[in-house]
TrEMBL record, chains A, B, C, D:
<feature type="domain" description="Gfo/Idh/MocA-like oxidoreductase N-terminal">
    <location>
        <begin position="3"/>
        <end position="120"/>
    </location>
</feature>
<dbReference type="InterPro" id="IPR000683">
    <property type="entry name" value="Gfo/Idh/MocA-like_OxRdtase_N"/>
</dbReference>
<dbReference type="InterPro" id="IPR055170">
    <property type="entry name" value="GFO_IDH_MocA-like_dom"/>
</dbReference>
<dbReference type="GO" id="GO:0005737">
    <property type="term" value="C:cytoplasm"/>
</dbReference>
<dbReference type="GO" id="GO:0000166">
    <property type="term" value="F:nucleotide binding"/>
</dbReference>
<feature type="domain" description="GFO/IDH/MocA-like oxidoreductase">
    <location>
        <begin position="129"/>
        <end position="248"/>
    </location>
</feature>
<dbReference type="Pfam" id="PF22725">
    <property type="entry name" value="GFO_IDH_MocA_C3"/>
</dbReference>
<protein>
    <submittedName>
        <fullName>Myo-inositol 2-dehydrogenase</fullName>
    </submittedName>
</protein>
<comment type="similarity">
    <text>Belongs to the Gfo/Idh/MocA family.</text>
</comment>
<dbReference type="InterPro" id="IPR036291">
    <property type="entry name" value="NAD(P)-bd_dom_sf"/>
</dbReference>
<dbReference type="InterPro" id="IPR030827">
    <property type="entry name" value="Myo_inos_IolG"/>
</dbReference>
<dbReference type="GO" id="GO:0006740">
    <property type="term" value="P:NADPH regeneration"/>
</dbReference>
<dbReference type="Pfam" id="PF01408">
    <property type="entry name" value="GFO_IDH_MocA"/>
</dbReference>
<dbReference type="GO" id="GO:0016491">
    <property type="term" value="F:oxidoreductase activity"/>
</dbReference>
<keyword id="KW-0560">Oxidoreductase</keyword>
Amino acid sequence: MLGVALLGSGRMAHVYGPKIAAHPGLRLERVFNPRIAGAERAADAYGGTPSDDLTATLADPAVDAVVIATPTNTHLEYIEAAARAGKPIYCEKPMDLTMERTERCLAALESHPVPFMLGFNRRFDPDNRALREAVRTGDIGALTFLMSWSREPAPPPIDYVRASGGYFVDATIHDIDLLCWIAGERPRKVYAAGTCLFDPAIGAEGDSDAAMTILEFPSGAMAHINNSRQCAYGFDQRLEAFGRTGMLQTRNHRDDPLIRWDSERTEAGMPLQHFFLERYDASFHHALDEFHAAITEGRAPSATAADGRAALEVALACTEAARTGRAVTLTD
Amino acid sequence: MLGVALLGSGRMAHVYGPKIAAHPGLRLERVFNPRIAGAERAADAYGGTPSDDLTATLADPAVDAVVIATPTNTHLEYIEAAARAGKPIYCEKPMDLTMERTERCLAALESHPVPFMLGFNRRFDPDNRALREAVRTGDIGALTFLMSWSREPAPPPIDYVRASGGYFVDATIHDIDLLCWIAGERPRKVYAAGTCLFDPAIGAEGDSDAAMTILEFPSGAMAHINNSRQCAYGFDQRLEAFGRTGMLQTRNHRDDPLIRWDSERTEAGMPLQHFFLERYDASFHHALDEFHAAITEGRAPSATAADGRAALEVALACTEAARTGRAVTLTD
Amino acid sequence: MLGVALLGSGRMAHVYGPKIAAHPGLRLERVFNPRIAGAERAADAYGGTPSDDLTATLADPAVDAVVIATPTNTHLEYIEAAARAGKPIYCEKPMDLTMERTERCLAALESHPVPFMLGFNRRFDPDNRALREAVRTGDIGALTFLMSWSREPAPPPIDYVRASGGYFVDATIHDIDLLCWIAGERPRKVYAAGTCLFDPAIGAEGDSDAAMTILEFPSGAMAHINNSRQCAYGFDQRLEAFGRTGMLQTRNHRDDPLIRWDSERTEAGMPLQHFFLERYDASFHHALDEFHAAITEGRAPSATAADGRAALEVALACTEAARTGRAVTLTD
Amino acid sequence: MLGVALLGSGRMAHVYGPKIAAHPGLRLERVFNPRIAGAERAADAYGGTPSDDLTATLADPAVDAVVIATPTNTHLEYIEAAARAGKPIYCEKPMDLTMERTERCLAALESHPVPFMLGFNRRFDPDNRALREAVRTGDIGALTFLMSWSREPAPPPIDYVRASGGYFVDATIHDIDLLCWIAGERPRKVYAAGTCLFDPAIGAEGDSDAAMTILEFPSGAMAHINNSRQCAYGFDQRLEAFGRTGMLQTRNHRDDPLIRWDSERTEAGMPLQHFFLERYDASFHHALDEFHAAITEGRAPSATAADGRAALEVALACTEAARTGRAVTLTD
C-alpha cells in the first residue's frame, strides 16, 4: 500500500479523493490545502489527515506519493516541492499554461528525478485504449486519418474561461495528446480555426467556443479535432481511425441501456452521459492504477512530463494558427 | 409486351394498376369490374379499356394474361373462368379462405393448365430475398430458428375483420408462406395463441388482434411468428434467421434517412414506413417481373397455387390451435 | 458488516466467493464443504475459515447469513438447516428441480421464518432492470408482447444435462422468472416446443437443446422465449417489450467497444461476451447488494422462495407442453 | 417531352444516356461525339441519332435541350455553342478547371441567356436533401459544424489525375458545393492540407490522395471535409450537421440489406456500395428531373453556373492553402 498525499480540495481533488480511498494499492494518508477548511472537508469525506503545512505533508514518511489536484497555476510550485522531497508525483493536466513554466517543471524533475505521471486520463479510457491497441497492432493498416470529437454539454463559467489559457490549451489539448498517443508521432504542422457561437462573453474575451483543428504528422497521416463548448445531447466523445485496410470507431456512452421506439422516434437512445466525470470515471481509476503500478514496479509512468510539454506546444501552435490564419510548423 | 386484363378496381387493383402500366413488359389492356363505374375509374387512372363483361374480357386476343385483384370470395370464379379461357393468371393472395374452395381452384388449374402465380409479394421483397438467399447458400449453417415480426400500424375496420377469415388466415398466412419458403420445408406441427388487446370489437367477433405462433419443421428447425394489429411506431417488419454458424437479420424501413440527436433522444430515426403499400411497394413490381418472366420464358411462376394451399392449411391449423389450446399436427 | 458462510466450493461458489469478499457490507466468515479440501481451496482464494462441519458453521455467532451455492439437490437440506439455525439465506436458483421438494423448502421457511432470497440474478442486471422500470412506469403503455432470447455458446456436458431437470427447468426458468417479473403477472397458459439440433447425446436423453415457448398472461399480454444451447457468436441475451405506445429493446454486450469496417464487413463488432459469468457479472454483485440491504433494513429480499416455486411450476408446465403437444393451463 | 442532345460518349455519357432514355419527360434525340464511332455506340445502347456534326446537332429543331457530358476541357466550347444556339444546357461538373475559362462560361451564358444547370448531382441525392431540409427548417437550430466524408474505393489512373486539376478541384469540389448549399452561405476563409499515402505516382505529380479541409463561414459556422482516394470498405459517403439544438447524420449505403452475426463479427454489414455510380445513381435521375422541371416550368434550374464558379473558387483556394500552409481569405 502506497500512502498518498492529495494536494488540493477543489473539483479535481473530489474526483481523485474517493478513487484513491477505494484503490486497493493506495491509502489516502494526507489531504493538503493552504486553507485548512478545504483540506478538512476533503479528509472528512475520503479519509487522510488534513493539513495546511506543505513541508510537513511532504516530509511525512507515511507519504509515499503525491497527487497534485490544485489549480493549474500552482502545479509548478508543488511539483518542485514534491520533487525536492523525493516523492513520486501524479499531476493533474496541464502542468502549466505556458511553455516557460512547463519547462521549469521538467527542469525540476531533471534536478530531482522522481517518478512523474501527468493525468492524461483519456489515455486510460477502455474505449480509447482499445482503439489505440487495434491501430497499433495493424487492424486497419497504415494510418491515414484520425478524428476526435469532443463536444461539451455547456460552456463553462466565464471566470473559468479567463483562467483557462484559451480553448485550444484548455480543451483541445486532451484530443491532441490522445491522437498523438494513438498515432505514435507528433505533428509537424498544425492549423486551427475558432469561432464563438454559444456564449458571447467567451468571444468578448477573444476566445472561441467551437473550433476545428488539423494536425499533419511526419508519416503523412493527418488528424482532425472537432471541439464545441456546447452540445444539446450530452457529452459527445468519439474517435475515428481510418487506415489503409479499414476503419475503427468508438461509440458514445449513454447511461440508459434501452433502445426506444415510439410514435415520435425509432431506435432511439436517451441523451448521452452528462460530462467528463460520468464519461471518464473509469479512466481516472485506471490512471491511478498505472501510477500505482509504475511506482511499485520501479518504472516510469506511461504519461510523462515530456508528453505534457509536447501537447502544450501543439495547443499553443493551434492558438497561434487560429489567430494568424497560418499553419504553424513545429520543429523536433 | 404482354397484354394484361386487370380484374377488380378496389384497393389491390389500385396497387397493381399503376405497376402494370409502368412495367416495361406489360401493357394494361383491359380493366374489368362487374360494376362498370369502378372499371372506368381505374382505366382512367392507369389505362386499358374498361369492361363489365368478363367473357369478352377473357376472350379478347389482346389479353395475354389476367391479374385477379378482386375480393377474395370471387377468386375461385375468376380463376376458373380465366383457366378455361387459357389465360395465364396472377392472383392476389389468398386464393380463398377455405380449404374446400382452395382445392377447387387447384382442380380448375389441373383441368385447364395455365401458368398461375399467387401474389405472395413478400417473397419478392429484396430484403427477404437476400435473407433467404443467404440462408439457402449456407451463410449461417443449418437452420435452427426463424422469426418473423409483422406488426401493423392500426386495426382494420371491423367489416374487414369479419370477412377476413380470422387473424391467422388474413395476416399470419404472409409470415407462414415467407418462413416456409425460406426454410424450404412445411411445418409438421403448429401452435398459436391469440389475444385481443387493441380493438374490443375484434374480440367480440371471436377474433384476435395480437398473436404468437410456433411452427415446428421436420428438420427440427422451428419458427416464431409475432403478429400485432397495432404498432405505435409504424409497420414493423423484421426477420431473424438463426443457424448453427451465425444469425441474419433484416432491418425495418424508414422513409427518413437521417440519424437524429437532440436533447430528448440520440441516434434516433423517425417512425417506420406507414404500412404495406409503402414497405412492400417494390415487392409488387418484382412479383410482376416474375409473372412476366415466367410467361415469356415458358416456365411456371415461383409462387404456386400449391404454395397457397399449403399456407392456408397451416393458417387454419393455427386458428384451430389457438381455439383449442392444442398443437395441430399436419400430415404431408 | 455481515458475516457470511458460503456453502459450497464448486463453480457457483467461485462466482460468489470473490464477490462476497469484495462487498463493502459483507465479510466472508466461513466456507463450508462436506469435503474439506474444496472448502480449503475456496477459503485460500477468497478468505474465511474452511469447514466441513455444517452444524458448527451455522452455529458460529460470527455467521450472520448463509449463501448456498451447492449442487441443486442439496439445497433443501441446507435451507432447512440454515432456517432452523435462524440464519438469513441467499440460495442459488433453482431451489430444487421438483415441486414436491420445492414445497418442502417453502415449508421449512414457514416453520422457521428467516429472510430468504433466491438468486434470480438476471433481475439484478442493469439492462433488465432498466427495461422493467421503463415498462412499469408506462413508457410503452399497456404491455402486448415480451420476448426473451437466451442462446448459450455451446451445449453443457451430458452429465450436467442429465442432472439438470431438462432444458425448460434448467434454462428457460431464467427467462420465465425474468418475464413474469417484468410483466408483473404469472401466466395462465403455457406452450413449448423443443428440438435437438446440436448435440445428439442430449436428444438421446429425451431432452432438447433448442426450444420455443409461449406464455399467455391473464392481462392478455403474451411472451415468447427463444432458447438455444448453441450460439456461434457468443452469449446472445436480448429482451424486447412491445406495448400499446412503443417498444423497448436491450442490446447484447461485447467486450470490445470498437466498430470495425474493412474489406469484408462494415459496422461490425467482435463476438459477444462468452457466457453468463461475463455477461451477468455485475448482476451477482447487485444481487448480493439486495441481500445485504434487505437484511440490514429488516425487510424481505425482492426475489422470494414463492417466486422460485412459481417459475419452477411454469418451467415444468413447459416441459409437459413440449412432451404432450398441448398447452398447459395453470391455476392460481 | 423534351428532345435531348447528349454531347459526349465517355463514362459520364454512359451515366446520362440510359437515364435520359428512361426519363418520362425526356427523349434522347441525338448523341454527338466528334468521333462518330463513339456516338454510334452510345446511340445503339440508348437511342437517338448519332452525329459528329455539332452545328447540325444544335440546329436540329427536335433538340430542345443539351446535356454536356464531354471531357471537362471541352465544356466551354460546347456551352458557348449551345448558348448561341439558344438551347437549355445541363453541364456535367465542373464547368472548367480554371477561373478564367469558368468566367468565360458565365459570360457566354450572360450573352446568350439560356436555362443552365450544373450537374452537382449530390444535391439531388435523397439523403443529402433530407439533411439539408432538416437543417434549413431548424431541426438542429443554428448551425455550428458541417462535416463531409468522401472516401473513394481506389485511386484513379494517373492520367486521370494529371488532367483533373488536382485533388481539391477534382474531388473536394463536390463536398464544397454540397456543404455551401446546406449551409446557405459561402466560406470567407479556407484551409486545406493534402498528403500522398496511397499512390506514389500521385505524389510525384505534386498532387494528394488524402486531404483535410476546413471552411469558415461568415455566420461563424465551420465545415470539415475529409477526402481519401482509397477506402478499403467501399465508397464512404457521410454527412454530419451539428447545430445548437441537435445533430443530424446520414448513413452509408450497402447493397446487402442483412445484419450478419457469426463467430468472427457481430451486427456486421457487407462492404459499402462500390463507387459513385452505385451510390449516387438515384441522384442523376433526380438531377435530370430538376432540369426537366425547370425548363418546362420556365424557371432557372437550382444548381447554377454561379454555384459552379463559387465552388471552383473555393477549391482553388484549398489548393493554394495546401500549397502555402496559409488559410486563404475569400472576398465576396
